[in-house]
Amino acid sequence: MENVVLICVLMTLLHLLWQVFFRKNKRDSHERAKLPPGSMGWPYIGETLQLYSQDPNVFFATKQRRYGDIFKTHILGCPCVMLASPEAARFVLVTQSHLFKPTYPKSKEKFIGPSALFFHQGDYHFRMRKLVQGPLSPDAIRNLVTDIEVLAVSALESWVGNKVINTFQEMKKISFEVGILAIFGRLESHYRKELKKNYSILEKGYNSFPTKIPGTPYKKALSARKRLSEILSTIIRERKEKRSIEKDLLGCLLNAKDDKGEVLTEGQIADNIIGVLFAAQDTTASVMTWILKYLHDDPKLLEAVKAEQKAIYMSNEEAHHPLTWTQTRNMPITYKVVLESLRMASIISFTFREAVTDVEYKGYLIPKGWKVMPLFRNIHHNPDFFSNPQKFDPSRFETAPKPYTFMPFGSGVHSCPGYDLAKLEMLIMTHHLVTKFSWEVVGSQSGIQYGPFPIPLQGLPARFWRESTS
Ligand code: HEM
């Protein structure tokens, strides 16, 4: 008995000594570590004006040239460390992701809903992510091919005529409908219309000035968010009454039970549905708009894509048979165009995390509470990883990029669960676009607009017409 007590006392002493030693060493190493190079700009506003008064990519690239792959700055009221190397992105997003939590502006959390998975870390995030991943996996979305085709064809048909289309706005309609399809399956059209109407009011509030004044985008967005919850409640009630077990996202969320047999609340379900719509719509629409532009600007490449797609079109007896999942997985030229568009456009130029403790990386200190931003676009446009990075060249994807140099869908615990669906949508859209339609971009201005994702200027105004089949 005495021996046991002695061993316990010794173990406790050892533990205490180890803790004191370890903590001291940790503190010492943090004391030794210095902040990364960089400039913090003016008090409070920091370098926000410099960032927003120029192309953000020029801002980041200039800093990277001056300070290297890791540098500090101060934007939007927060001290930040920016990371422009694949190793650093891996450190923050993958290997040491527990030291960094996701962070979003408060308004996003308010409008989307605080239970949406991307605001979380740890057990709740893990659980929600598993639920969201299932209905977005290749096994589930292979059943959506025909429905996505129908959406793409009917959208393209509606663009034909002498009118000028805002390509991005039209692509948003498609990506919204595809999001609805993945979430609810075939949802009745009056619900789709109501969801669309209110979601479009909501999204105008995401970046608007917070105020209680009636009639402002912010106030309208708050009311629209309430109505969205009510619509979702009605849809959920109907589902429950039907007692049908669907495999779409709503079905998975409704049937989920945790270890204690607890189901998700309606609030948690609504926040995650709105979260998925938010994550799916502008992202996919921006990339599809860029694909149209890149193909338009490179007639030789367009011919190659057309040839690949026409072969599939002919084997389906000129679209008398629907596209198959297998066909969508065998479009090598078009697939490389999709990848190169994702790289060139890098529509998610960077992401935000926040250090939950003092972190040391490569001798630099990232203090607790500081924002950390892996700069995807700078990595995608670094000539060390992609030669002649400003050239649109899908053939570069004949060889796989080096690890962590190509992250259009992020990486690690928060990486995009919708990437297979997004790619499928882009491939189906391109198939129908190039086999049956032609288009010309209107206006000679070329440039980038941020809203907030980079899109071609004015959403790429274009005219479409049906190609003669003779
Ligand atoms: C081309 C289209 C898309 C791009 C470029 C894209 C990109 C990304 C990126 C970079 C992230 C990670 C952000 C971070 O680490 O902070 C992300 C997360 C996410 N994406 Fe996508 N995405 C696209 C389409 C979609 C679609 C179609 C869906 C769903 C139908 C979707 C659902 C999500 C969700 C739910 C998350 C949060 C995951 C988590 O926090 O665990 N995305 N996306």
Automatic annotation (TrEMBL):
Keyword Plastid: no
Reactions the enzyme catalyzes: 2-cis-(+)-abscisate + reduced [NADPH--hemoprotein reductase] + O2 = (+)-8'-hydroxyabscisate + oxidized [NADPH--hemoprotein reductase] + H2O + H(+)
InterPro entries listed in its UniProt record: Cyt_P450 (IPR001128), Cyt_P450_CS (IPR017972), Cyt_P450_E_grp-I (IPR002401), Cyt_P450_sf (IPR036396)
Pfam families per the UniProt record, alphabetical: p450
Cofactor: heme
PROSITE patterns: CYTOCHROME_P450
Pathway the protein acts in: Plant hormone degradation; abscisic acid degradation
Membrane topology field: Single-pass membrane protein
UniProtKB keywords: Heme, Iron, Membrane, Metal-binding, Monooxygenase, Oxidoreductase, Signal, Transmembrane, Transmembrane helix
Molecular function per GO: (+)-abscisic acid 8'-hydroxylase activity; heme binding; iron ion binding
Record GO biological process: abscisic acid catabolic process; response to abscisic acid; response to water deprivation; sterol metabolic process
SUPFAM superfamilies: Cytochrome P450
Leader sequence residues: 1-22
Annotated heme binding sites: C416
GO cellular component: membrane
Compartments in which it is found: Membrane
Enzyme Commission numbers on file: 1.14.14.137
Entry's family note: Belongs to the cytochrome P450 family.
This protein's name: (+)-abscisic acid 8'-hydroxylase
Organism: Actinidia chinensis var. chinensis
